[in-house]
Amino acid sequence: EGRPRKEDFDRALKAEVRDALWMLSKQWQMGEFIGDDAASPVLAKLQLATSKLTKYQAKNGDSIWMEPKLPLETKVEHQPIPFIMGQNNVSLDIRLLMGRQWLKMVTTLDLTYKAEYLQITRYEISSPQADQESDAFITAHVKVWQHFSAVAGRNMDGFKFYQYLKESASNNAYDDIPSADTLPKQNEIAAMADKFIVWFERQFYQPKETQNPSWQPSYLEHQFRCSAPKGSTEKVFIAEEYYHGHLDWYNLDIDPHTSDLEDPEGTSPEVEGNLVQSFIPTSVTFGGMPHRRWWTFEDWKTNLGFIKPDTTDLNKLMVLDFALIYANDWFMFPITMPVGTIADVKGLMVTNVFGENIWVEAAGKGSDEDWEKWGMFNLNIKGTEDVPTDLSLVLIPTVNKVLEGKPQEEVFMLRDEIANMVWGVESMVPLATGKSKSGKEVGHEFNSKLQKLKDKLAVPPPEIAYQADLRYQIINTVPEQWIPFIPVHLEGSNREIQLQRASMPRILENDPNPPQKIEARTSLLRHGLDEDPPKPYSIFEEEIPREGIRIHKSFQRTRWINGEVYTWYGIRKQVGRGEGRSGLAFDQLMPVGNAEKEEG
């Protein structure tokens, strides 16, 4: 370091060395005389073979072209919003939102249309009756009852209007509207109805069919495939266990037994070919990395010495090893690739400061079944065949962040070893208004409402004198939100079983009719129940581990690369809370209390 003591800086800028032997000894001490990294790269040329994901196919769906304007999570996860559950209309909040939007749009044409649409019984919201058992789904919950009573006859059910337009091409938005008596008025309303349909389908991404075929209820997971051109064939990627809500490269496996997917209708998107790109390498830098000069202190904001990895924290040890020893030996070659691209590095030509050209091939070569081989971002090849590792990098068209709302439905699947069955406990149940409530409270309120209706019509039973101290109880009850799944043999097998949804009887006092079955109130457990005729629902036994699982439905929202906002109704699955006990028991002798004897 030059320290001039004169106004003339010529000698100071020369940086004269007074003790060259000391500098040589320090180089020897630091091992610089035995180093192999003598040259630095100054130029690089990268050769890539690129392709693009072009086809998508759900597990039980048809092959379609990939939509570049749609995130893959939205395509895979989206579920239909439940507007009808059993014989009851639900999601009142969205129904009102759709009705207000249509009345707002149509009144821009003529103010008289609003009153005429409110008078059409096809789009009305009916008021629930307190003494009707069919309306107990609403009247059992005070706030839900109040909400329906407040909007009945005053608001329009927008979903009924949307459903009427989508049912048949012969259904028109101006049907039963007296003011629309001329062709120009009818054309104006029809054009506005088309805008209304586009508005709703833009607000909530819905399946074109009744269900999204990627969701497999028997596995409680999403399953799909996608492919990209590879010469005369295709490279097919398969995802068989996607459920946690963050879709990335590690959810995909390469399917070597499938050469291509069916060609959908329409025009296929363009696919890129080989790419050769030249650039100047830059050194990798990060906060806290060791400085190149030994006598210079690093930034104190990042102290790698505070990291204390355990003996099992191999990832932390690898990062520390890279940061403290090899940090200055890494160079970066940045490449920008569009989403949905599959890049396969053919080679890298590096020119160093000595003018030498070095051909570098992709790391991680070897057998795909070699467990000692290690690489980053390499996809697994499905199967156990001894095949070469696939070194391609897949950039899936997924988003970085998804905003998730509160669970609308929540179910805990847990094992009950005492009763030797599995239970689906509905922790959060959607109400008819669109909001959710604790499944325990909903079940208690609904059961109490039905009991009150039976008590009003009940005939006093004859008095019977009980003299015994014990009574025989065939079966006890469990809370209504506990839905049983019983083991059932697979057809044609004496060993394999599945867990099939069953039902508990709803036993009400003073009810002369046979007990009704308690049905699930979440769409997660009602699979097949609303079909005509109802179909059984089975889950593979191995999908419910001993620790149980938690499944919930909620609204997801994200913004894509083109600025568009997508909202969909998605499912998540997580680890449960362990085993549970329902208290279900059969054939019990119960003591008769004094109060019960006196009543008898």
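That was protein one. Protein two is written in the same sequence-then-structure order:
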Amino acid sequence: MPGARAPLATTARRRLAGLVSATLLAMALTAQVAPSAGPVEPSLEVIVSADPGHRSALKSAVMRLGGEVGREIDIINGFVARFPSTALNRLQLAPGVRSVTVNRRVDLLDHPDGELEADPGSLEGVREAINADHLLKKGITGSGVDVALIDSGVVPVAGLTGDDKVVDGPDLSFESSAENLRYLDTYGHGTHMAGIIAGSGEGYEGIAPGARLVSVKVAGATGATDVSQVLAAIDWVVQHRSDGGLNIRVLNLSFGTDGTQPYTIDPLSYAAEVAWRRGIVVVAAAGNAGYGSDKLNNPAYDPYLLAVGALDDSDTRKRIDDVVPEWSSRGDGVRNPDLVAPGKSIVSLRNPGSEIDLTYPEGRVGERFFRGSGTSQAAAVVSGAAALLLDKRPGLSPDQVKALFTSTASHLRNADPVAQGAGALDLKAAAAARTPEATQEHVPSEGTGSLEAARGSAHVEMDGDALSGEQDIFGEPWDATTWARNSWSQTSWSGGLWNSEVWAGDSWTRNSWSRNSWSGVVWTRNSWSRNSWSDTYWSRNSWSGSQWEGDVWARNSWSADSWSRNSWSRNSWSSAQWGEH
């Protein structure tokens, strides 16, 4: 990118988590789960989630039913099992069972258009669950609405390669100086979200297939990013929301930190609020339960935003058995999710060779697709729904969109009332409801708080030194008051400068960042091997996901000890070491 300077590489720390299991229910299970005479075809592969202390007993029950126990899934206190299909009901009724989910795969049909077979986790199933098809059948596809995606970039896989489907904003990630990586999603998260929101073509459709995506890359192959990068990205979206024919009306943030300072002073919450007040519906993932405090992740804990939790459809198309999975954050009882949307085992576009694709191959569905769960996916569903609603009713304000979604949401009978907020998204009902005179009246954020507190426990690192304190990734001092004033007046970006440092090119026009630059791009894992970025492992919990087909990918982040600010002085960013481009 002209004038850009590469941010620094990072390191990862993973906290090993384990759940203590016990064997207290052996006798009770013997009474309620009768032994099977032997395997009966057909058999089922299921994912069993147990209440605390019951996992061992349930494994024994599976074996008594003539089944086999597979790999452990600690994040849900569960395991994979295969047993006779006739025994499914008996296992579901056993004491200590939290859930038994059929581990179906989604396969491509044989006909030429390559549509996915109907499945609760397919986008076809998701559109049906939120009643999006009602609008799509009327030709309302999100056309004319741009959705900004601040994430790990997007790659031009089938379903995201149509004319003018994706516009690239600036690359603010740690890979921005590498021409073969710039804008591209080496991690895999951004492409998955993009497919959910607005994928179209090649036998695949997202929630709003006619919407356009504006991708602002902030994370590289390990998911590493700092809050200062996200602030710069949000500011850029606000300042350029109408440039070059753009019409950014929705901002997707499948991202969060475990920072807990009051939203009324938090810089990340403030930046998102500025976007909201400038006419952009900000959809924020609620986060993962067990990450940090009981609060929703930052910035979802800001009450102005649309905070989204995940819904588990229990592998059926019936609403009556829908629940909120344990890993979807509940909030603290004061600020809870506004609503929930499908976020369990969602099938979206695969990013071949990305970090997630190589680390979790069991998430692959055929050659083109990938299955993942989390509030990231749920937020992407709601962002697509917002694009559809704004296509139908472009005059709606963000407050009115939020009011329509929450006032028409469907209450889940069997779900935690706090966790589900107003209930499950019902787009048909929202589109049909009268336009409310909605104006939120919360205490607004001032944005004058601590940048370090906004990070929570998530820190990027260089050569063993964690970035901490009131400074951005270039070591520039952070003056919250000055930044907040500039962010509100939309002057925080001046040419390619942000916080007095060159972060991007000197100018921006839609054509200069056009998706057309991707035509003919060929890239492989070798072209962005993390060997060229030493110490780049990083905690991924900030990306508000939970699992990639059953395996943990979102690890709890770690809190660094205090580090000397000298480690992150501007001298560390010499052009000799990092280069200026």
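The mean pLDDT is 77. Keep this in mind for the problem set.
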